[in-house]
Design brief:
By secondary structure, the chain is an alpha/beta fold. It has helices at residues 29-42, 46-52, 55-58, 61-81, 96-104, 109-126, 142-155, 178-190, 211-221, 245-257, 262-271, 285-293, 305-315, and strands at 7-11, 89-92, 132-138, 161-168, 171-177, 195-198, 260-261, 276-279, 298-301. 47% of the residues are buried. The mean pLDDT is 95.
Length: 316
């Protein structure tokens, strides 16, 4: 008998949302049930928001974070409803790490909803609107981008710039004070970047400007009962798995102000013998990144019901 293929599940964060993103899962009652459960807890109709928008409301951090948690959890539950096996690893990109914790069995869905809503609020409050920013730098090595950030921070009058997301080789996001981000973009161009793109976000995530939010998140997490992951989970901040709930809470705090090390995460999967990486949620953002990280890994993006059935035919 052929042994089952080793696969990992990954969960997207902000940036994968779109109007109508849940319409392709209509055949799975558990998807709508997950949204109903969340809406009862939070007192808002997220199902209508996901499928009807408007896009500006969908893109607000305070809406996007719980919405993507619902979407990822719903799609993973749809996978389970098909009899899908448990992955050998899970991970989530930024906010998606909370969805991965739910999938791993370490964090109840209701508690995760409360946490991500609070996370969104403290992130938005940490930096006055208009003073922070993020930009994608394409076509430069990691060390060059680090050097650009160091140069801008050293030469600025109190402004800081740091790498925020190591998404794939040659695709790095920087974050910090808005003026520092603009200077970093100019310096990246002069260092040979193929493209530099200011991102349409109001919160400079995964940099030291989130220290205040991290402090508040630490206090909030102290009141949470966290279990042990039943599936090994690689964390954004250190690309390690942890079996101590206190350590996991500390890593979630660090995650707010340290970079997302996605390239290393996917390479760790490959080194452990993972063959397929299944993206649980709407969109194909992570699948696109993963192909650039390791072309030998096979990506399965569960973007709708047909994709779920295809993944089941491949992995079951």
């Amino acid at each position: 008998m052929t042994p089952p293929l080793k696969f990992a599940c990954v969960f997207p964060g902000q940036g994968s949302q779109s109007v109508g993103m849940m319409k392709g899962y209509a055949e799975f009652p558990v998807v709508r049930e997950t949204f109903a459960e969340a809406s009862d807890i939070l007192g808002r109709d997220f199902w209508a928001m996901a499928n009807e928008g408007p896009v500006d409301k969908l893109s607000l951090t305070i809406n996007t974070q719980p919405l993507m948690l619902m979407a990822g959890t719903a799609v993973y539950r749809a996978w389970e409803s098909l009899g899908g096996a448990k992955p050998v690893f899970v991970a989530g990109h930024s906010l998606g790490e909370y969805t991965a914790l739910v999938a791993s069995g370490a964090l109840p869905f209701a508690e995760a909803l409360s946490l991500v809503c609070y996370r969104a609020e403290v992130m938005q409050q940490a930096v006055p609107e208009g003073t922070g920013g993020m930009a994608a730098i394409l076509g430069l090595d990691d060390e060059v981008v680090r050097a650009v950030c160091d140069e801008v921070t050293t030469s600025s009058n109190g402004d800081l710039l740091e790498p925020a997301n190591f998404n794939s080789p040659g695709q790095i996001v920087i974050a910090g004070h808005k003026n520092a981000v603009l200077r970093g973009m100019e310096l990246a161009r002069s260092n040979g970047a193929k493209r530099v793109i200011m991102l349409p976000v109001s919160v400079p995530s995964h940099c030291s400007l989130m220290d205040r939010a991290a402090g508040k998140m630490q206090q909030r997490l102290e009141r949470v009962t966290l279990g042990l992951p039943e599936i090994p989970l690689l964390h954004n901040a250190d690309v390690q798995q942890h079996d101590d709930p206190a350590v996991i809470k500390n890593i979630l705090v660090q995650q707010l102000c340290k970079p997302v090390r996605w390239t290393e995460t996917i390479r760790s999967f490959a080194a452990a013998g993972v063959v397929h990486v299944m993206e649980c949620g709407p969109g194909k953002v992570l699948s696109g990144l993963n192909k650039h990280i390791d072309g030998n890994l096979r990506s399965l993006a569960l973007t709708d019901g047909a994709a779920l059935h295809h993944a089941a035919s491949v992995l079951m």
